[in-house]
Amino acid sequence: MPKVAKSPGIDQAFAQRNDLKHYIHEAIAKQPNLKPLFEAISDHINNTVLRQTSATIQPEPASKKRKLDSPAPARNVAPVPKWAPDSFYYFNDISFSIPQRKKLKLDVGKLPEQGIRATNAEGEVELDIKWADIREITCLPIPEKAHAAYNFCVFTNASRDSPDTEQVVWTVQDAIPKDDSVDPKLKETVTGTYRWLLLTSINEALKPYNKSVTIPGPSEFVSQLAQAHRKGEMAYHVRSFRGAKDGYLFLLSSGIIWGFKKPLEYFPFDVIESVSYTSVLQRTFNLNIAIRRSSDDETQEFEFSMVDQADFGGIDAYVKRHSLQDASMAEQRRAKRLNVNGVKGQDAEQGNDAGGELEKAAREAQDMEDEDEEDDENFDPGSAGESEGEGSESGEEGDEPANGDAGDDSEDDADE
């Protein structure tokens, strides 16, 4: 095999792939006429790499350089103006879960042009949201915890059009903070738990915008289910599933929130088109919320399944109190788009008689049970034997109608 001189261009192009370089040189040794082809390919690779490298290190135009006082900080942390030390309160080691799981220092600005910030251990700002950009802040109790804890959930104005972005969630325990964990300037004026200190400082900052932190309360909704983790306390959530994800619905004075899996779902009243109930079973039902975020958007349907029947009354009262459409009564209320209780006259009587799909189903189930009981009372053992093998077999079936119904519903629940 004739020996062919190696090409520097080929060696440079395939410097990171010795195996390919070896095969190329072997091919050229066997067929020298291939050398120009491989050299042309190598030149193309080398020129492409050179252009990419030049574009990466190319200096910015002078006009852009003059706008920056210092080089961009590392890790894509955006440069932001510093706050004066006396213009904000700080909370150390706050646990964030959205947009990422991390412990950060939380700063709460006092001035209208400020907002909330989260900084890392190096003092770099990783999160900066202005008060003017915030659409909603809520403080929600975290369900099923042995010790009380709360999630502060922030939704910016961008969340209305892009629900997967601009959401912030951090968690605080319902406990008195340690001496070094909260700004002493705040503790000089306010005493209480983490939750109370945050509520006080944030609400004070939101006053110029006529806003405040939204918290759940008995005037909106209280669950009828007993709380196993903290007995005797009111629960303001509804356990449900969104697809395979389990979570909690909170019915608030400003809208409905489902959490706390990422992303949260936030439905302010002005985007809700209708609320309806489907898959109505003896123990559970599904809650469907149809929304339209703007007049140009199509209606989106969000289904929350396996809601306990015990909470239907509170949910339905909430829907009617805030004049949200009930899709199961849509035909009767089509002319009154956002007024559930506004139907008058004959329509109102029909609406009250119907009571919604869920109530109708419950009445039908009760009527069937009453008929079964009446049949049992009228049953004459002496006349059995001529119809469907009655007698002892029918008696055995009549002993356990409730268990049979429960078994059917359990299977239906599992299918859901």
UniProtKB/TrEMBL annotation:
<feature type="compositionally biased region" description="Acidic residues">
    <location>
        <begin position="367"/>
        <end position="379"/>
    </location>
</feature>
<dbReference type="GO" id="GO:0031491">
    <property type="term" value="F:nucleosome binding"/>
</dbReference>
<dbReference type="InterPro" id="IPR013719">
    <property type="entry name" value="RTT106/SPT16-like_middle_dom"/>
</dbReference>
<feature type="compositionally biased region" description="Basic and acidic residues">
    <location>
        <begin position="357"/>
        <end position="366"/>
    </location>
</feature>
<dbReference type="GO" id="GO:0042393">
    <property type="term" value="F:histone binding"/>
</dbReference>
<protein>
    <recommendedName>
        <fullName>Histone chaperone RTT106/FACT complex subunit SPT16-like middle domain-containing protein</fullName>
    </recommendedName>
</protein>
<feature type="region of interest" description="Disordered">
    <location>
        <begin position="337"/>
        <end position="416"/>
    </location>
</feature>
<dbReference type="InterPro" id="IPR050454">
    <property type="entry name" value="RTT106/SSRP1_HistChap/FACT"/>
</dbReference>
<dbReference type="Pfam" id="PF08512">
    <property type="entry name" value="Rttp106-like_middle"/>
</dbReference>
<dbReference type="InterPro" id="IPR011993">
    <property type="entry name" value="PH-like_dom_sf"/>
</dbReference>
<comment type="subunit">
    <text>Interacts with histones H3 and H4.</text>
</comment>
<comment type="similarity">
    <text>Belongs to the RTT106 family.</text>
</comment>
<comment type="function">
    <text>Histones H3 and H4 chaperone involved in the nucleosome formation and heterochromatin silencing. Required for the deposition of H3K56ac-carrying H3-H4 complex onto newly-replicated DNA. Plays a role in the transcriptional regulation of the cell-cycle dependent histone genes by creating a repressive structure at the core histone gene promoter.</text>
</comment>
<feature type="region of interest" description="Disordered">
    <location>
        <begin position="54"/>
        <end position="76"/>
    </location>
</feature>
<feature type="compositionally biased region" description="Acidic residues">
    <location>
        <begin position="387"/>
        <end position="416"/>
    </location>
</feature>
<feature type="domain" description="Histone chaperone RTT106/FACT complex subunit SPT16-like middle">
    <location>
        <begin position="235"/>
        <end position="329"/>
    </location>
</feature>
